[in-house]
Design brief:
The protein is mainly α. It has seven helices and four strands; from the N terminus they run αββαααββααα. The chain has one domain. Helix content is about 75%, strand content about 5%. A hairpin with a 2-residue loop joins β1 and β2.
Length: about 280
């Protein structure tokens, strides 16, 4: 948000809706979409640079930041899923969400985002998570990936058991299963609204305080900008934790069955050995 420009205008530009900046065929490209693409490309470039710089020697700069971020995500996933192996397996996916949300939040505080650069009277760049359509897309993609990974882990039959138990034709089980499926939709809504409102409210606060502060905008905005930096990490943390928890819950049933089968097989083998020992003597 360009708070220096806002401080000198007649009033703050406040909009809860992403605004189109240009079109490609029949597709309207909004300022949040343009911002999201730029952030995604920047993360990919930084990731490639960090990957090439990684090695045995202690990392520095961007590489060290990426390593710290991934170590944090891996430790977080290991605690949620109870498995270091699974943490490594899913770290690239959930780590991508974490990094994208954090950088998207933080880059939204730069002067070029918002009123700093305009196109046809509208900001050229709008924070990606300040667009409800964008946060819905993020949340929906996360839930779809959770379903996909759950089916890969448990199989389609095992995945359906997570919702409808072993007896789906039982009216009570079927009703509870429908409630569970409906709960997946509410998860999409809750994840998206949490991201959207926190970013949108932050932009509004910055715009209002910049307008009120006028010449002293730097001092009036400093506490809010520090708070927004904290919110960036909190929101990325919450989104990652919730998404990973949904996956852990979805695969818990299959893991329990797998452990039960292993215990049963072990018990059978032990019984067989005991019988063999008795037969021999």
């Amino acid at each position: 948000m360009s708070w220096l420009v806002l401080a000198s205008t007649d009033g703050p530009h406040i909009s809860l809706k992403a605004e189109p900046v240009f079109t490609i065929g029949s597709l309207n490209i909004t300022n949040s979409m343009l911002y999201g693409v730029i952030i995604a490309v920047a993360i990919i470039i930084l990731g490639v640079i960090a990957g090439k710089s990684a090695g045995i020697k202690p990392a520095r700069g961007i590489t060290r930041l990426f390593e710290m971020g991934m170590e944090f995500v891996i430790n977080l996933l290991a605690e949620i899923m109870g498995s270091r192996r699974k943490a490594y397996k899913y770290a690239p996916v959930f780590g991508a969400y974490f990094v994208f949300i954090v950088i998207s939040y933080l880059a939204g505080l730069f002067p070029l985002v918002g009123e700093g650069v305009t196109h046809n009277g509208s900001p050229l760049f709008r924070p990606f998570t300040a667009d409800l359509n964008a946060t819905l897309a993020l949340a929906l993609s996360a839930i779809i990936l959770v379903q996909y990974f759950s089916i890969k882990e448990s199989g389609l039959k095992g995945h359906l058991k997570h919702y409808f138990s072993d007896k789906p034709l039982n009216p009570l089980n079927f009703f509870i299963g429908l409630l569970e499926v409906f709960g997946e939709l509410t998860r999409v809504i809750s994840l998206s609204l949490r991201l959207f409102f926190n970013t949108a409210m932050g932009d509004i606060l910055i715009a209002i305080f910049a307008f009120i502060g006028a010449n002293a905008a730097t001092f009036t905005l400093l506490p809010i900008m520090v708070f927004e930096i904290l919110v960036a990490f909190i929101q990325a943390y919450v989104f990652t934790v919730l998404s990973a928890t949904y996956l852990a819950l979805a695969t818990a049933h299959s893991e329990h069955e797998h452990q039960t089968e292993e215990q049963f097989s072990y018990s059978q083998s032990q019984t067989g050995l005991m019988v063999e020992e008795l037969a021999n003597g």
